Amino acid sequence: MLIGCNTLSYATGREDVEALALLANAGFKSIDLNLNKYALRSPISSFWQTEESARLCYANALKQRANELGIVVGQVHSPYPTYFENEDKTEDVLHVTKSSINIAAALNSPYIVIHPNIPPSAKTALQVEEAVENNFGFFSLFFEDLKRTGLCIGIENMFN
Hints:
Helix 2 (16-25) packs parallel to helix 3. The protein has six helices and five strands. It is globular, with a radius of gyration of 16 Å. A five-stranded parallel β-sheet has the order 1-2-3-4-5. By secondary structure, the chain is α/β, with parallel strands linked by helices.
């Protein structure tokens, strides 16, 4: 069994490769690379506005550093939230999530964690049931990407 840690707290204010070194030095052997550092809030992070090849170079540099440090990327967290109450961010969410899948695959991570597309206001049983039904369509948008990359999806459980 490998003991792992999420990178988000360690990556704030520093490069992700530096966070890897901190975690490796602390004794962790696996990481959950949390891409929420490059959040979807307005305006969208410039990280997602670069070419896909630039993001894959980023992933390759992380992979190389992780290999040097003897740690693995156990999973990658795609940015969240995936639902925006008063904004239409559908295209951004799709773009970022699909790119996160590609990053996870480049890192040889077996898992990509994607948060459900669920409104925070969904509190009643009926609202939650509707959100669950809507998520069948949301997650189906990634089936081909997951099939192509061989990644397994982890669906984050949400408070509501």
